[in-house]
Amino acid sequence: MKGTVKTGLKFAVAVVLMALVWRMVDGAEVATRLRALRPGWVVVAVFLLLGQTVLSALRWRLTAAQLGHRMGLRRALREYFLAQVVNLALPGGVLGDAGRAVRAGAVAGLERAGQAVVFERLAGQAALVAVVLMAALGVSLAPGGIVLPGAMLAGLAVVTVGLLMAGGLVVLTGARWPRVAVWREAAARAVFAREVWPQQVALSLGTVAANLLAFAACAAAVGVWLPLGAVLVILPLVLFTMLVPLTIGGWGLREGAAVALFPLAGATGAEGFAASAAFGVVFLLTSVLGMALWLWPGRTEPGRQQG
After folding, report:
1. Alpha-carbon distance 167 to 174, whole Å?
2. Gap between the Cα atoms of 213 and 95, Å rounded
3. 8 A C-beta contact, residue 26 and residue 270
4. Per-residue pLDDT at 44
5. Which of 41, 145, 189, 232 could lock 220 by a disulfide, CB 3.0 to 4.6 Å apart?
6. Structure confidence by residue, pLDDT tens digits, 139-163
7. How far is the first Cα of the chain from the last one, in angstroms, to the nearest whole number?
């Protein structure tokens, strides 16, 4: 009952935020642009998001294998698409991943399965943060490029320092806290080992590229053409709002961020709202399409645990 109330409240927050942001911009322009969606760009976005999920599933499969849990590609894809649907449909954005870990834990053990899911998600977020920071530095130094507000640059600097301090804390406290040491050693084996880190980097950058290009394609579908700097700096910041557990699937928060940030790229707030809404719908569509794997006939292997 409590969970139902919480879900209802977050759905209500999403609706209220969408309504408020709609009133802040030219709602008529948003509606016009959404009605005039260019189907070709929508198809491009669908394939890019499907590709992003495939790369994410491959990254999870690789990470789990390094921890001794091998699974077939079909099973990894099925689980990942299911997790995406749950993340988009329920508040928090991580419940689907938690379910993925619990189901894998039946074979690999809950802690090992949890490590694989956490490391896989963190690898993707770390790649997105790295792209934002490098791109922000690049556009700030490039003459005639996007002018980022000083407050945004200061915020990015704080994030950079915070991440470095957090990483240093994990390294320094591992010997004192046994559980931290266990997870640190697992991360070293699953993500940073010499034979695996190039694949982790390639898969993570691939997911970032597919995600950002899909958002750019959705923007193009509503008639908004974003420069490369905007794709690399503004779109990741918009996507990060989907991690804030205040609404369902990031709705409302994502549109508000797009309205605030798209003008930095020379677009209007209404264009940002339309692009973000189109991305949200396409992302949900691709996740539902991926669920077809659960209906596809054939036996799914349960997975194998190694030493």
Report:
1. 11
2. 26
3. yes
4. 97
5. 41
6. 887 766 678 888 888 888 888 888 8
7. 41
